[in-house]
Amino acid sequence: MKLKNKVAIVTGASKGIGAAIAKHFAAEGAKVVVNYASSKEGAEKVVKTITDNGGTAIAVQADVANEADVNRLFEETKHAFGTLDILVNNAGIYQWEPIEQVTATAFHKQFNINVWGSILTIQGALKLFGEKGGNIINVSSGAARTPMATGSVYSASKAALDAITVALSKELGGKNVRVNSLLPGTVETEGTHTSGVIGSDFEKKLVANTPLGRMGQPEDIAKAAVFLASDEAAWVTGEKLAVSGGIYGF
Length: 250
Ligand code: NAP
Prior knowledge:
This protein is of the alpha/beta class. It has a single domain (7-241), classed as Rossmann fold, CATH 3.40.50.720. The chain has helices spanning 16-27, 40-52, 67-81, 104-129, 142-145, 152-172, 190-194, 201-208, 218-229; strands at residues 7-10, 31-36, 56-61, 86-89, 134-139, 177-184, 240-243. A seven-stranded parallel β-sheet has the order 3-2-1-4-5-6-7, with helices on both faces. Helix 4 links the parallel strand 4 and strand 5. Helix 1 (16-27) crosses helix 9. The longest helix is centred in the middle third of the chain and has 26 residues, at 104-129. The protein starts with 6 loop residues before the first strand and ends in a 7-residue tail after the last strand. The structure holds NADP nicotinamide-adenine-dinucleotide phosphate. NADP nicotinamide-adenine-dinucleotide phosphate binds next to helix 1, strand 2, helix 4 and helix 7.
């Protein structure tokens, strides 16, 4: 049990990568706060899977881009578990559009959730980490390292998140807080199904360019998140770890 008795918040854990991280953390002994924005049913299903397997989890609704919601997320975490050890900033959205079609609404939505939302949750986490310190994992994207056509805003938002990771690893190291980014390659999730990536020619091209020759699965990312959250990564901070079957490796 690599995370025995640790308390973790995983944002955007009602489905996809976040749900897999929540389940893997719980299987390693963590008590998990399964955050979601609107998918109550999805979050409750994740909690049920965890508790059915002997783990501990609660679901808490909160839009990470809304300060009052984020305050409530941390109040409910404190009420349920008393402390916090690990924050995974996984909640995020992606939109693809040619530069001519980028709107202020689309820009602000992606930056509000992917960047401002992560800043708000980090501020909340620091108060609950207290003197013992803690561990922050920002779920970025290979698209931050290798931006693609029509992904300028999304890539910029994840590159901003990576910059926050590095800055905070320096700012918070003295408080015993580690901060790392995980950069998934394309992963088969509800989000990539809905956005039409899965089953498209684009997916075929991605697989053809992936050295390990397949799409990523949420479990691939969750295993790397367990590593970063655990003491096995005690000397790792300020890193940007690509978990992409090699497509986004250097
Ligand atoms: P997904 O299947 O679309 O799930 C997104 C999750 O984020 C859901 O639980 C959703 O909650 C939650 N969420 C969205 N907006 C939120 C908000 N404002 N506040 C709180 N939660 C919110 O996404 P995914 O594909 O698993 O991606 C997860 C993360 O990995 C994202 O940050 C994404 O950018 C990153 N990533 C994904 C891929 C990929 O190929 N899938 C690749 C690289 C990076 P509700 O269901 O309640 O709305």
